[in-house]
Every structure is written in structure tokens, then in C-alpha cells.
Amino acid sequence: MVESVDRSSDHVQSLARGLAVIRAFSAAAPELTLSEVARATGLTRAAARRFLLTLVDLGYVRTDGRLFALSPRVLELGYAYLSSLSLPEVAEPHLERLVAEVHESASVAVLDGEDVVYVSRVATTRIMRVTINIGTRFPAHCTSMGRVLLAWLPPEELDAYLERAELRAFTSKTVTEPAALRAELAKVRSQGWSMVDQELEEGLRSIAVPLRERSGRVAAAMNVSSHASRTTAESARRDLLPHLLATAARVEADLHATGARGTALSR
User: Fold this and answer.
1) Which SMART domains match (predicted)?
2) Contact between 262 and 233 (Cβ < 8 Å)
């Protein structure tokens, strides 16, 4: 629903509501009626109708008169961000080589609030119940890339994260206590990589390493994920981690050579 908290005088409520209408659509709800959009956003039917018809006029939404759905033009909104990044373009050929070497799926993600957001991915067989695409978000606390990105946060930013984040349990193995997560992050920073074993989803095991910009700041993370039936924790360390570290080094070298802006990688 549209947030009702106080905003600064610079906050444009109509823009926020229009974006809320766009976000009401999802893979689970690709087509919505006017009433469903109003209910999902907290808008009145009249307001929802105005926003929907405006989006139709602009080409971001299509309708058959009863159902509304996003149009392909809405991709322009995300492409403006992705096109400003050199990271996905630079990383993709390296991910493809990595996947060919280890025969497991590989991804790159950045931190956005309490979530990781996928910005590049090369998949093999599907190993999760949900489909992972560019823009997919998962909670940082129970993902290998999230742990890497959290481990290298400045101390004050990590403290703020631990105070506000909901450390939800997704499986019986999910770390949900702030003190335990802090200890795990210290271990990740010390060893230089993170392994998460079936904390996001039963059967999913992943290992991740940082991607650093030229200044040394960790701006993104790269992982390899596999099904626990195929890869033990020990075999992941022995067989996957060396390839992952070598790939990360090649990506970093290319990013530095192209002068990629770290601020663009993680904003």
C-alpha cells in the first residue's frame, strides 16, 4: 500500500502513487482489475483509475477495458539504471565462462536496503522454486551475496542494518539472531567469501565472493549456486570457490580497466 508517513516538502505524492500502481503488478499478478489495483495500492477507485489511464496514455500499461497489465515499455524505467552500469555487461561473459567450467548457475548482485538485487545472471538448470531474473530481490541476511555485501559495510551502516532488518526465517537453518549474523559476517570478512547452506530455501547451497572497485570498496558480489544433492559444503569450497575467486579477479580487472564507476554499481 502507499505509505502514509510524513515526507519532506520535496516529496511528490502523485509520483509516488503512480509508481505504486506500477509496482502493484507482479509475476503472480500480471493482470489486475481496477478494484484490485486500488486495493493493492490503498488508493480510491477513482484515483487508481486516473493513474491507470494516464499510464495507458503514456504506453506503460495496456488494457482490454476490464483488465490492466504492464506493457513492454515499462522496461525503459529499469533500463535507464542498467544501461548506466558497466558491471552487468562486463560480468556476463565471465559468468558464462564460469558456468561452463563448473556447470552451475552464477550471478552478480548489489545491495539495496535490506535486499540483494540481481544485476547479472547465467543459469543452468533451475534449482529454486522461484525463477531468478535480472531485478530479482532476496533478503540479504540469508543469501551468500547478501552476506558478502553486509560483511564489508562500514560499521555504522551494519549497525543500522541489524537494528532495522527483519531477519526472517525461511528454513530451519536460517540465521535470525542479530548477534549470530554479526558473528557470521565477521567470519565472511576474515576468510574473504561466504557460503550459505539451505538458509533461503531447502536444498539450495551457494557460495559468494566480493567484487571490488578500484578504491577497494566492495560494490557487488558474485556467487555460484547449486543443489545440495549435487554439491556438499566441502566440495563447494574445493571445487567451486577457486573458479569463483579467479572469475571475480578477471571481472575486477576488466571493471578497473574500463573505469567503471563504483557509485553506479551500488546506488
Assistant:
1) HTH_ICLR
2) no
